[in-house]
Amino acid sequence: MEKIQHSHVQVQGLKLHVAQIGTGPKVVLFLHGFPEIWYSWRHQMIAVANAGFRAVAFDCRGYGLSDHPPEPEKANFNDLADEVVALLDSLAIDKAFLVGKDFGAFSAFMVAVTHPERVLGVITLGIPFLIPGPLGIQLDLLPKGFYVIRWAEPGRAEADFGRFDVKTVVRNIYILFCRKVSYK
Predict the structure, then answer these.
(1) Where would I find the AB hydrolase-1 domain in this sequence (predicted)?
(2) Which of 96, 126, 130, 171 could join 27 via S-S bond, C-beta 3.0 to 4.6 A?
(3) What are the φ/ψ torsions at residue 170 (nearest 5 degrees)?
């Protein structure tokens, strides 16, 4: 079996970490959510490659092994969608199936709406399709305690995570996503 290959590509002035496997003529691009990186798609990437596709995942700007944007406070979902299109260009991919989870789903929707000629299909997890528009209107549809709403308030995420040491935060995140947990 092939191994997942890793590289870095320059996209919009940032160095992005990319993971790829498979050599099929059709491409499936996986878009992670919060608080994830490309690695959350590793099992799906292998399955997709074994089915004859080229599977690609990357660490979005500011995540994993990718560069952080110089002014993260100015970032928006349009930037993430533009990043996906620029990544496709950088990897010489004309069209791809987009698979997104969480904010990766927002990126997939935005690319499909703004660049339909680049998209073979869209699959999303956890987020229903919302017509692209002012984010404030869409945020009103989310539950009040949802992290996107909660952490939109400046300093709130820092305060929430600041109550715990790094080990506790990482442990709690893994507990949420793992089937078996050792409490030792």
Answers:
(1) 27-130
(2) 96
(3) -65, -45
